[in-house]
Design goal:
Helix content: over 70%
Number of strands: 2
Structural class: mainly alpha
Order of helices and strands: HHEHHHHHEHHHHHH
Length: about 270
Amino acid sequence: MTWQAVARKDFEDAVRSRWVLGLSVLFVLLVSLAAYLARPAPGQTISSNQILNSRLIRDALVTTLIPLIALVVAYNAVIGERESGSLKLLLSLPHSRADVVFGKVIGRSGAIAAPVCAGFLLPALIFVIVPAVNFDVASYLGYTALTAILGVAFVAIAVGFSTAASSSRRAVGGAIGTYFLFVPLWGAVQLPLQLYLGMSGSPSWLPLTGQQVLRMLRLLNPTGSFKIVSNAFLQGALYTQGNVSMQVSATLMLLVWILVPPLLGLLWFQEADL
């Protein structure tokens, strides 16, 4: 299949990026440092699941750095080749525009999966060496895979912007806006609504309760959906205990973010004059 050739070349190009290498090294070092600092005091024990689900690793590192690395990996995927003129050459080969878009999503997804796996490899060695840490290998590998899926969701968003953008500047603006909206500013976006619903309740014209609106907002953010799924997974309750419908909705929302942005970008790309 021709998308495989696009994905292979795109993966090789992405992993050679200095920005990607630098951010990947930073992620490896910070996760390793966090794992070391989270080690228990003498005479105490802790599970690797508790460390992974701590605010230090989950909130301060994974849901902060992984979206940033993914957006840096993918924001220039299509528009960069379009502006350099290499996109016309690529499409002159037996590649359709869909092959190009989804090949780049897959290639850049591999490029984000590589630093994620590397980032959790060294902490795994720390957990094995420290006797006071109960290391759950299966859960650790599963959490690593979920983190990679979070990265893939942001890669798909960035490729969607890159496909629809008319210039690198707009692609960069879309990537930066996405990052700030979903990572540092999402709480500020929700706060006025939380205050409004808390004081006056849900408006009569809205067929949802205030709690349902807030849950929907939490699900709309890929990092929020990731936290729901990963938290349930590390507690051994994914799809079996707790709010199962919320867990299923969060999983589906991550899939929506992976599929919909590239498809929307492709719809515009099919009609674009290169």
